[in-house]
Amino acid sequence: MITYVDASTKARRASGVIPLHGEEGFEGMRKAGALTAKALDIITEYVEAGVPTATIDRVAYEFARDNGAVPATIFYRGYRHSLCTSLNHVVCHGIPDERPLRDGDIVNIDLTLVVDGWHGDSSRMYPVGEISRKAERLIEITYASLEAGLEMAKPGKTTGDIGAAIQAVAEAERMSVVRDFVGHGLGRLFHDEPNIMHFGTPGTGVPLKPGMIFTIEPMINLGRPHVKILSDGWTAVTRDRTLSAQCEHSIGITETGHEIFTLSPGGLFNPLAARSA
Ligand code: MF3
Ligand code: CO
Ligand code: CO
């Protein structure tokens, strides 16, 4: 996701131009999205107690290398890893390290693979062993909020409709939507127009048009929405240290609705739901 600061420093954003992609773009995004989703599927079996997140980072790096792809985050604004691993009260941009995962952790893994210049960006929530009921509920609502956002992703709706739908699902459960990071256009660029806020007012914002390609990636907190960035310059955590969850798809708007580029080939987009299925 990107910050408002990123948004203001980007030339394309300043011009406000939202690219409309044709078949070439959709074909490129299909390949990049499919490979990213396959990598996130493979990662599922590595997410268990005792495994350091650095190991998961290496699995993604090697998968990318062996499949002719490059993780977009390596050397991105000084970031040095193939993916982000955001545990428990970490909202996003958690940095992989040697600390082992522990039973009861929940971890978001966010991966962007570049294939033939196109960016496939997706993240999921992985439970480690048995997790608490409140962690389960947070994950369920986070996925439900993305689903609600996706339902609005079609011509005739606006970016505000997407945000409002996500916000309504989270707040109905007395959870909160993080404001500081938003979804984003992508394609040959990692972060492009439009911004996709995960809160808002129906009917406001940008009208959705066929050919727009962007992510939806709500971050939902059990407590208050406020975040702070740790001294490493990346890790965003909840100020009140309550649990946070996120999931992300890359999509393209079509004439009649949308196409999801990052669907899981193994039906593992929600690992918690897949477990009980
Ligand atoms: N994949 C993230 C997103 O959804 C961005 C990660 S940027 C990083 O936009 F540098 F922190 F990796
Ligand atoms: Co993203
Ligand atoms: Co991402």
Automatic annotation (TrEMBL):
Manner of cofactor binding, per the entry note: Binds 2 divalent metal cations per subunit. Has a high-affinity and a low affinity metal-binding site. The true nature of the physiological cofactor is under debate. The enzyme is active with cobalt, zinc, manganese or divalent iron ions. Most likely, methionine aminopeptidases function as mononuclear Fe(2+)-metalloproteases under physiological conditions, and the catalytically relevant metal-binding site has been assigned to the histidine-containing high-affinity site.
Record-level Gene Ontology MF annotations: initiator methionyl aminopeptidase activity; metal ion binding; metalloaminopeptidase activity
Cofactors that this protein relies on: Co(2+); Zn(2+); Mn(2+); Fe(2+)
GO biological process, one term: proteolysis
PROSITE patterns: MAP_1
Record EC number: 3.4.11.18
Positions that bind substrate: 93, 191
Transmembrane found in the keyword field: no
Binding site for a divalent metal cation 1: 110, 121, 248
UniProt xrefs under InterPro entries: Creatinase/aminopeptidase-like (IPR036005), Pept_M24 (IPR000994), Pept_M24_MAP (IPR001714), Pept_M24A_MAP1 (IPR002467)
A cellular component annotation (GO) from this entry: cytosol
Keyword terms: Aminopeptidase, Hydrolase, Metal-binding, Protease
Reactions mediated catalytically: Release of N-terminal amino acids, preferentially methionine, from peptides and arylamides
Domain of life assignment: Bacteria
Family membership noted in the UniProt record: Belongs to the peptidase M24A family. Methionine aminopeptidase type 1 subfamily.
PANTHER family per UniProt: METHIONINE AMINOPEPTIDASE (PTHR43330)
Quaternary structure note: Monomer.
Physiological role: Removes the N-terminal methionine from nascent proteins. The N-terminal methionine is often cleaved when the second residue in the primary sequence is small and uncharged (Met-Ala-, Cys, Gly, Pro, Ser, Thr, or Val). Requires deformylation of the N(alpha)-formylated initiator methionine before it can be hydrolyzed.
Name this protein carries in UniProt: Methionine aminopeptidase
Gene that specifies this protein: map
